[in-house]
Amino acid sequence: MPHSRQQFVRGALLAFTTLTISAPSISAERPEDAIKFRRAAYSVIGWKFDQLISMAKGVKPFDKDEFLRNASLIEQLSKASLEGFTADANKGDTKAKPEIWANMSDFKAKTETMQLETGKLMTIAKAGNLADVKAQVGKVGASCKACHDEYRQR
């Protein structure tokens, strides 16, 4: 991972932790904090998913315990990330398209699909069959892409 990305991810993780502790009071008052919260969550999700992909592709040795920790964190953060989509957090430093707020039920359904696929990934990874893990990593990736295609600006 390039040095600048490591710094960004560390900063995102710190921001996510800070905002998680104070999110209920902050996000209701300042839309930019809700945006920071969700950006931090998605940055960590991306970082951890890259690690899962590396293991699935054999770039990095498959470590079942590490894989399960990362998959669990992705699932948890995907659930928490929805808190960053408050009604007033649709403008500012964000790649989120306005269509999210116009189609919030579809956006939530797609997020729930990603959570479901990540849960299945954890079950499959516990069994330890790498071929099955690889296939499910692809399904998780496809569930992420479903939101990115429709609801994320490039």
Q: Please state the structural category.
A: mainly alpha
As residue ranges, the low-confidence spans are: none
- On the 0-100 scale, what is the average pLDDT? 87
Largest sheet, described in full? none
User: What is the CATH superfamily?
Assistant: Cytochrome c/b562
**End-to-end Cα distance:** 21 Å
Q: What is the total tally of β strands?
A: 0
CATH architecture: Up-down Bundle
Q: Give the count of structural domains.
A: 1
Measured by DSSP, the beta-strand proportion falls in under 5%
Radius of gyration: 16 Å
Shape descriptor reads globular
Q: Oligomerization state of this entry?
A: single chain
Helix content: over 70%
Q: How are helices and strands ordered from N to C?
A: HHHHHH
What's the CATH C level? Mainly Alpha
Question: Would you give the CATH topology?
Answer: Four Helix Bundle (Hemerythrin (Met), subunit A)
| Number of helices, where a helix is a run of at least 4 consecutive DSSP H or I residues | 6
